[in-house]
Amino acid sequence: MAEVILDSVTKGFEGTLALDDVSIAIPDGSFVVLLGPTGAGKTTTLRLISGLDKPDRGDIFINGQSMKGLSPAQRNVAMVFQQYSLYPHLTVRENLAFPLKSPLLNLPSEQIKKKIDDVAEILQISHKLDNKATALSGGEMQRVSIGRALVREPSIFLMDEPLSSLDAKLRSDLRVELKNIQSNLGATLLYVTHDQIEAMTMATHIGVLDEGKLIQFGSPREIYENPISIYSASRLGQPRINILPAEIFDESPKNAKFIGLRPEQIFQGKGHDSLVTRVEHLGDQTRLHLSFKNHDLITVTDAHTPLSSGDIVKIQPENPFYFDVNGARL
Amino acid sequence: MAQIKIKNVRKDFGVFNAVKSSTFTIEDGEFFMLLGPSGCGKTTTLRMMAGLELPTSGEIYIDGEEVGQKRASERDIAFVFQMFALYPHMNVRKNISYPLLSQGMPRSDVKKKVAEVAEILGILDILDKPVGGLSGGDRQRVALGRAIVRNPKAFLMDEPLGALDAEFREHMSEELRALHDRMKATTVYVTHDQLEAMQMGDKIVVMNHGVVEQFGVPQDIYDWPATKFVAQFIGSPPMNFLEIDGMVGIGSTTIELSGMTQKIPEMRGGAKGRLNLGIRPEHIHFLDSSKYKGNVINTEYLGTTQIVSLATPDGEIKARIPANVAVKTGENIGLEFDARTITVFEGERGLALPSVANQGVISHG
């Protein structure tokens, strides 16, 4: 297992900067999730660490060793992609054995068998080892591709949206499973996703990327409770944080241009009148769409609220975030 | 606009039975969701309303008129597909005008009508642009415009947002719903996304294996699921089931868990043997003094709340509690269940047993 360091890494593709002077220290045994919209530089970061692409400037260190000039095979990293690429004509066991049969490793066959049995047990696919890969369900196939990464005992796992093609139920099961596997192995894992639930629930650290720049790096709780900018604050939280002009409520600090209100930062029952424009019952909670001084905002309330559209609700900010004209947190 | 009534509708494709025997009514002006996993028969049901498939048996009424065996063109209904099909060689205005011109409407009327629709959708500024260069959202708006312009009796939509990414989907779903609130047109909407269904729908039909499992307003379905399938399909995480071997009868107000007597809503039906106690994650509370313990397996931070997985003597459950409560893996925690919210399911068929709490809501099939 390993610590990974990106030191001022820059990478461009045909005139656009995919990564712009990014430095990250990924501690040994951490589960790091890179979060950001399409084009933020998440996948580029993975590809640079794996050795599939080379940085234009800067360097990458795994366990203190520079990766300059090392091929993907020499780096001992394992990648898992969104689309599981298994060999369809091979059984699960043969698929798992494949990375171990590399002439570079030259492992004896009993050792290969033992490793496969161990990994199959961790992933709960022991009973499927002799099935053809094509006879598996989507969730099982993705488990096998994760297994193929596990058997190699790489120094770091790189995963690019590995759960996004699975259905909701399976995704939430595998989320818990993957997190348990990672923490039991003490593995270092770098994970790319669009899905904020995955980021919040699995990560020890989240890296927020915006147009190739690392905006914030910290625990999910730090990013959620202490975002450094509007952009960072907007990455986590459902419904999304409300951003309004700072002066809309009574007093605001000097230099404040925007006020940021997550649902729990909106106190209901005293303060200013707002109009309920829509009520959405989501089951465990109810979303209120409010109109306040011609601005729309969304907050949540009790599942069984008597409120309906047309009602007046008093609202007041409670420990809100303030941001300056550039969107930086004050 | 229109009321749509589905009565004992069945559809077979050869030997495969896609829809068993559906009965439900969509009231005039409703935003109505057909919800279920893939293969449950929801799209087939929608296509039968549109006239794109004909039912094997049963009746479909639009505003009281039986249309089951009529062709799509005779039903005055607009269909919006997941992949919005626009004419690529025409500009936005021509795409929206096309259905009217082909009906033979005079050009001056068409022009007025198109302007009206473009205004509603906020696409006046792109009317003369080719559709090729439009963003996903604008293409979707144009497709909607083409449906709206005909003034149909109802809109039928088959996962119209399915192909969009998460952030944009949320935005478009709000826009669609706001559009509906302005126009009040009867809309039937197919989705497999339970959150989308809860968020947008006035009413929901939940289908599984060609059968209507439950039909009602979103909050009722969430609170009082008629079957275990509905209890699991709606809600994230889904409803928990404590598995017990026991019995309840009419008038029962308690049930025996392992080592604890649990209060439940007064029963209006009975069953014995394998039973499931259904409890939503937010109705599980931590209470030190409780004799009923759960061992913490895992916690998932979600910002405002956290999900705690616990092993109990009656199976694994998930609780939703505030994020500021400190919870450690391996810890034993006393648990309390909100008795007013519990549903008892009969084990074999997974049907909810009636109680004073749910009897007004549940109706099977």
General description of the model:
The complex is a heterodimer of chains A (330) and B (365). Chain A is an alpha+beta fold. Helix content of chain A is 25%, strand content 32%. Chain A has nine helices and 17 strands. A six-stranded mixed β-sheet of chain A has the order 6-7-8-3-9-10, with helices on both faces. In chain A, a hairpin with a 2-residue loop joins strand 14 and strand 15. Chain A starts with a strand and ends in a 7-residue tail after the last strand. Chain B folds into two domains: 4-223, Rossmann fold, CATH 3.40.50.300; 237-346, Beta Barrel (OB fold (Dihydrolipoamide Acetyltransferase, E2P)), CATH 2.40.50. Helix content of chain B is 23%, strand content 34%. Chain B contains eight helices and 20 strands. In chain B, helix 5 (166-183) links the parallel strand 7 (154-158) and strand 8 (186-191). The model of chain B has no long low-confidence stretch (mean pLDDT 91).
Strand order of the largest sheet of chain A: 6-7-8-3-9-10
**Count of helices of chain B?**
8
The main β sheet of chain A shows up as: 6 strands, mixed
Low-confidence stretches of chain A: none
Mean pLDDT of chain A: 91
Q: Return the CATH class of the largest domain in chain A.
A: Alpha Beta
Give the proportion of residues in helices of chain A.
Answer: 25-40%
Q: Which strands sit side by side, in order, in the main sheet of chain B?
A: 6-7-8-3-9-10
The CATH architecture of the largest domain in chain B can be given as: 3-Layer(aba) Sandwich
CATH topology of the largest domain in chain B: Rossmann fold
CATH superfamily of the largest domain in chain B: P-loop containing nucleotide triphosphate hydrolases
- The coarse overall form of chain B would be elongated
Could you give the order of the helices and strands of chain A?
EEEHEEHEHHHEHEHEEHHEEEEEEE
Number of strands of chain A: 17
Shape assignment of chain A: globular
